[in-house]
Design a protein that fits this description.
Bound molecules: S-adenosylmethionine
Order of helices and strands: EHHEHEHEEHEHEHEHHHE
Structural class: alpha/beta
CATH superfamily of the domain at 15-140 and 165-197 and 243-282: Vaccinia Virus protein VP39
Helix content: 25-40%
Number of strands: 9
Number of helices: 10
């Protein structure tokens, strides 16, 4: 009989583990900062700011930046960098036409209910404000996901309720942004093979906790060891470095202002889904 996890558990974030095993996440955020092209004095919201290392870079560029994250532990780490960082769920943003831009790196695919998140981002932006970000896209870390799901199914647990990620296609993301009253300047899906700083076990310990949570505590170490063993040969390169099969979705959009809205505010049918192709696509930036 297949066991179902009671509910999809929220991930627990540990700033120490994140810094050791996942510093590459913020280190690889520079192209998204470049796409944002922040100007001195702009008021910017960093959505899912984590431990604030990338947020600090934006602050150092002279931006007036606020970071929000649902993890109190990550926000404490961000505050220790001298940032205005607040514990807040991205599904319940409280801002109203306050920001010139909303920026987000490696966080959007963790946020359940993306329509609510984007509706809140739109409200937070001034008309004409930018929403620029990058997150996991369709096919992201497929080797890890398949191994985790296979190992759970082998233990008679239905993996569908515990996978915390939504990896959208470029078409799906574009449609969602447009439905919420954004003009999409660019959205692209691309492979970004990513060297890990150590063994695959560190990656699993940092990012795969939602898959482990439904298991009895005594079974967890064995589960993680099985998953790690099953991915090592696929991910190890000739130099012995583990290369994770990251796929990124990078986008830039602009909130329509009243004057160019032409009566097209956010649509009522924002939950409409546009099925994305099950292959990698690259959508050229427009205009
Ligand atoms: C992989 S980390 C990225 C952190 C940071 N942006 C960076 O580049 O290092 C993902 C972050 O998203 C946050 N997050 C996930 N779901 C969230 C939600 N619903 N609301 C706010 N933050 C969320 C997590 O707490 C975590 O800090």
């Amino acid at each position: 009989m297949t066991r179902r996890a009671a509910s999809g558990p929220e991930a627990k974030w540990n700033p120490g583990l994140y810094s050791t095993n996942a510093r590459f996440v913020s280190d690889l955020g520079q192209p998204v900062v470049d796409l944002l092209a922040p100007q001195r004095g702009e008021r910017i919201l960093d959505l899912g700011c984590g431990d604030g290392v990338l947020t600090r870079k934006l602050a150092d560029l002279g931006c007036d930046i606020v970071g929000v994250d649902s993890s109190a532990e990550m926000i404490a780490a961000a505050r220790s960098l001298g940032l205005d960082a607040r514990v807040m769920d991205a599904r319940a943003l409280v801002f109203d036409a306050e920001f010139d831009a909303v920026f987000s790196n490696a966080a959007f695919h963790w946020m359940k209910d993306p329509d609510r998140v984007i509706a809140g981002v739109r409200r937070a932006l001034k008309p004409g404000g930018r929403f620029v970000g990058e997150c996991g896209g369709l096919g992201n870390v497929r080797t890890f996901v398949q191994a985790l799901e296979t190992a759970l199914a082998r233990r008679s647990i239905d993996p569908s309720t515990v996978n915390p990620w939504h990896f959208a296609s470029a078409d799906e993301h574009r449609a969602r942004l447009e439905a919420h009253g954004f003009d999409v300047m660019s959205v692209e899906l691309f492979e970004r093979p990513t060297p890990l700083p150590g063994d695959v076990a560190g990656w699993l310990e940092t990012f795969a906790q939602s898959f482990v949570a439904p298991l009895p505590a005594a079974e967890r170490p064995g589960f993680l060891a099985d998953v790690a063993a099953s991915v090592r040969s696929s991910l190890r390169n000739a130099d012995g470095v583990y290369i994770a099969d990251y796929v990124r979705l990078r986008f830039a959009a602009r909130r329509r202002g009243q004057e160019d809205d032409h009566g097209r505010g956010p649509r009522d049918d924002v939950t409409r889904r546009v099925a994305g192709p099950a292959r990698l696509i690259r959508t050229a930036p427009e205009g």
